[in-house]
Amino acid sequence: MKKNSKVSDAIEGVKRGDLVSVSRALTLAADGQKEADEILRAFFKDLGRAQKIGLCGPPGVGKSSLSSRLISLYRKRNLKVGMLAVDPSSPISGGSFLGDRLRIQEHIGDTGVFIRSIASRGMVGGLSGTIFSQIHVLEAYGCDKILIETVGIGQDEVAIARAADTVVYVTTPQLGDEIQAMKAGVMEIGDLFVVNKADLEGKDKAVSDIRAALGLGQARSLSVQERLHHGGLDAGVLVETKEPRAWEPPVLAASARDGEGLEPLLESLDRHEKYLKETSEGRRRLKNQCREELSLYVSRRLYRDFLSKVSEKDIEDLVDHKMNLVDLASEILK
Amino acid sequence: MKKNSKVSDAIEGVKRGDLVSVSRALTLAADGQKEADEILRAFFKDLGRAQKIGLCGPPGVGKSSLSSRLISLYRKRNLKVGMLAVDPSSPISGGSFLGDRLRIQEHIGDTGVFIRSIASRGMVGGLSGTIFSQIHVLEAYGCDKILIETVGIGQDEVAIARAADTVVYVTTPQLGDEIQAMKAGVMEIGDLFVVNKADLEGKDKAVSDIRAALGLGQARSLSVQERLHHGGLDAGVLVETKEPRAWEPPVLAASARDGEGLEPLLESLDRHEKYLKETSEGRRRLKNQCREELSLYVSRRLYRDFLSKVSEKDIEDLVDHKMNLVDLASEILK
Lengths: 334, 334
Known about the structure:
The first copy, chain A, is an alpha/beta fold.
């Protein structure tokens, strides 16, 4: 492949530590087009350099403020920090909305911090596919810590868990029953739990609720998950048991606003990084990340190739019931 | 392909209107394996039969209660209703958690209602890919209305907007600034807006806030979307304008708990269905749904084929920096 000079300039710039080049490389990587392949090829070798910290949890729990605090603390230790903020996107305009600009203004002008807002587009592998490439760029720039934050729940959250080494699940004391129930579904992805806004009433109850749900502090009781599939007539309940884990997820109370409980959070994050390095879990996660990145990369490429083979006429035939989707797909795949 | 008798029994059963068969067909369709192809092949022709109504919005706004009310009202009109509730899933156990079981108990034993909970797994095209097949099953069963509800924000929500004919965005008067800000990103996908829990204070303000954000009632002012990409040094603001729409999204206040404001909601849903039928918009959406379903179906098949070609050794080589991801992918794709 002939090297594109715009791309190779960006690649060289990132290696030199030039911030504008980092910005360009991230944009190229996010596009997922041919140039993105060159970026990925150049920076894939930096895989595993940084600790990738994912921040999950419902909207409004203060993940942005918490991220901003973490960035400041890491900067005090002279660590280089990258942050990818996954924002809900408009599926029509493709635009990205950055809710909390404070977090950016606070760190403006500091070359040890790089913050980028990413739109989670509704395309196949859109989020995860390019997030891996963007992580490689930040690793190549020399980031020691990469924060990945999302406001999304569901697919977005799961995607982040697959890209991160350490997943922090953030919640607050005020969240109602509905969110508590919902949380159970994503609980398994958390390596650390933070009850933020700990200045509010109900902090202790929230902490103990989470500990109970995780089966902590109760002589390793079972984590019971009910699965109810209802088919109009039949309803079954499946009870699953969970293996004891070598890593016991800490449940911490903190207040990003008042700056409380942040040092213990940082210590837990360090402890988890150490745990990953010293056990086979770290390598297992890296392998899973590679597997995921590879699959997404390949399906993105195949998807791109495939789309160019579908004509307007094909789609008309589907809508007009002249053609069956399975048959059309088989024909195109031949 | 040799017909599998279990599959053809399910297909025949759905056509006869047998609920147990619908349940089986949905499970087969959701698996996305070979049997799913037979289901899709049999029922694709029912595409476009029902009005597919997507319900989006943050967790805790009462989408489940609203769905349950809508189902009751449609049942009074003697319409057959299907519902697919997309729940956040555990990426590890693959389990699905159904938060609000009341909605099921209320309609239990009614053969005119079919409710299925779907886990939004973190796989490529997982949600959207199989949701289309499941919709076809419900259409073949004779459903007039299909409600698709999600607690997910971000990818899940966008996926639903791509499968639905009519998107209802649900919110409440109490939502704070953070959620208000977030909402702007997904606002464009809503065809109808409902401020639920209208018994709470702030209903009128919420309605007028949404109307303002949509550019309604202000001589069609611009919908301004700010996009802020920060690259450490540069920060730019992009202002986009929006074309006037033929359909003006109604913003309604309702209370699912007290049963208020539901008839106007039903009328708006009917009006939107009529609008889609009488303008080119309906066909345009159907075509987009086909395009999406086709792409997801194909990439799911390709992904499946691809995964079988990746060995453990390949992944080890990636983690050990012996191989570059782009090169490995190219080799496998050859």
